[in-house]
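Discussion board: Methods & Data

I've been asked by a reviewer to show the raw model output for two of the constructs in my manuscript, not just the figures. I'm not sure how much to include, so I'm pasting the format here to get opinions. Each protein appears as its amino acid sequence followed by a line of discrete structure tokens. Is this the kind of thing reviewers expect to see in a supplement, or should I convert it first? Here is construct A:
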Amino acid sequence: MNPSSRVDRDGDGAGNVWMSHPSLSSMSPIRLSSDTEMSFGERSVAAAGAAVLSAVLVNPLDVAKTRLQAQAAGVPYYPYEPYVRRHIVSLGSNTIFSDIRCSTSCTRGGIFGTEMVCPPDCFQYKGTLDVFHKIIRQEGFTRLWRGTNAALALAIPTVGIYLPCYDLFRNWTEDFTTKNAPNLTPYAPLVSGSVARSLACIACSPIELARTRMQAFKEFKSEGKPPGVWKTLLGVLSPLRNTSNLQNIQNFRVLWTGVGAQLARDVPFSAICWSTLEPIRRKLLGIVGEEATAASVLGANFSAGFVAGSIAAAVTCPLDVVKTRRQIEKDPSRALNMTTRQVLVDVWRERGMRGLFTGAGPRVARAGPSVGIVVSFYEVVKHVLHQRHSSP
């Protein structure tokens, strides 16, 4: 009997031909598309564009997630010395107030002497929507995009490394396993996603550290702009300036604070995400048929990315809590000596299961759309480039 074939779209804008035969127990992918012919530069440009779009749209959710996790770790969000004078006063029926008004529109404040004062809980976050409300009221609407410049500086190189490397590793792994170990082919996305994410995390860890700190710490100074990426990183290094040159070189590793926790979070995130995303999007694109359009590529990849990103974000939330705690630690010696296991145990003892999933809501709400946007934008650009290359 002659082999039969069918075309299955894998989301890269062109088909993979799967050859099947009754005597074969599995089907092996044979690429006939220009996906393997795309240059690393073209892949990087497509990925960088996706990263910019995603970073801008979902940054407020990232701020909310980081603030909730930092608050649980003990970061104060009420004014404190040396920026403002702080007194504890009793007004009315033994209600405790601090000497600062959270906003001019607050109706819960009172007057002490010549100053307007608000209850301490005006500065405590109770959930994602409460973070949005209080940041807008106390700091201004634009602070929801605090750290966007760091997110962009991080997203472009991270995704520019991550997605192209994933594509190349996946293609190579699938080709290798198809020829030598067909039963292992379904695990190609898992392995490729883990390796690609590890490379991206290690390369961009200092920028991730700056972003976490910029989003976690509240600025109480009314004058001037809050520190940007460069000043934030200089602030991380400032306690080490008085050490010897040799120690300074060694202590530059503080810029990679939390990279272990970040890898512990992102490697399983990528493994779960890609191993979930690939079968979903291939099935969706298989329904579309041989002539996939940009719209169908967009819809299938966004849907698959949304589901996969949400699942991966929920599962890896405890490791995200650990990463945040390690990166907001201001004592350099303590930051360098903290371990992921130690922080996990500390969080469990302090707050139990609820503590391990602090910020899970905004993290999942951020990751689903973010993965969907990045993957769908990236694949649509690849689809357009493929059509352009294929046209006479």
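Construct B, same format:
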Amino acid sequence: MSPKLIKIVLPIVIVVVAAGLLFVLSNARQPAEQREELPTGILVDAITAHVEDIQYRIVSQGTVQPKLMTSLISEVNGRIIEVSPNFVEGGFFAKGELLVKVEQDDYLTAVKAAEANLARASASLEEEKARVRVAEGEWASFTEGVAPELGLRRPQLAQELANVRSAEAELERAARDLSRTEIRAPYAGILQSRSVNIGQFISRGTTLGMIYGTDIAEVRLPLTDHDTAFIRLPTRGQGDYPDVQLSAVIAGRLQQWQGKLIRTEGVLDERSRVIYGVVQVEDPYQLALDHQNEPLRFGRFVRAQVQGVTSQQVVMLPRNLLRPQNQVLLVDAEYKLEFRDVIVQRTDERYAYVASGLEAGELLAISAMPNPLQGMQVRLGRVDGEWLESTVTSATSDTDKQE
């Protein structure tokens, strides 16, 4: 074949071969896989709104104090000759227990002197009564008519009777002073502080110590007007008292005690504009019963949860989902964002309680979004903590594309 013919035929052959290869490759290619069209938009997580009946618990805090506290003060003068072993700071004592005894010698002498004075006054009274009887007899024997008071010794009799009563009062005073040499506990309690000791001379008005009653402890809880709207406060000591749970962390362990909200102080605090509720706890040191819990000591700072009223058909949602102007962000059936106005009945440090504006089963967006807009298209990721199937499929599809 001549070189000229080769130059003409070779390009034609190459074109035919290329066309044949292109036809073969076109017929051998697999059709493109049909994939489901997935929704587009920002991936967000959501939770489902649940409607339920809720009993509110109002949270407050306060310091444990004794209901009864008394400063023991001496009413006599003298030297202390006896002190109870329980008359120490932190010592417990029973009602009527002898705490401090003052020397009694001078007071015993005063009682004896008062008794002798009363005996003399009583003898003089009996003697005067006899003279009155004699005077009445003499007047009846020698004179007719009404006898004068002086003639019948009536004034003298009245004077002797007054002397007897004065002597009796003096004896009572002496006996009372003698009884005051023994300072006894007016109620069961604990000694908070002590100011005297054995051998010390004290005078009338000397402070001996401070005692606290251990039968009942009280906790003053500050309550706002909004708090009191959700508590059935007792009125005039009548009705059921709301239960109160007190708690504190002691040595790394949470300890709890039960009490009752028995009254309010009735006057708003001028500075904080709150009203104080008073919670009582019986036997805080657990002396009457054999308890295993930690004693509720005076001076301890505790957290309180007061049992409130029950509200019907309320949606409880995390407080951070509540937006300004009482709005929440929903995901509707078309996977679009919706701003919804709701009526909030109450909020606390963790939750917001929605009374109306939400229906059961609606989805609330919980993901953080910088600039959410009404009607913005989104994709659901996790709902109530569980991944949706479509979201998992979308993630698998993205992985396949990368491969």
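Answer (T.O., handling editor elsewhere):
This is acceptable in a supplement if you add a one-line summary per construct. For B, something like: The helical segments are 3-28, 105-142, 154-179, 225-228, 389-402.
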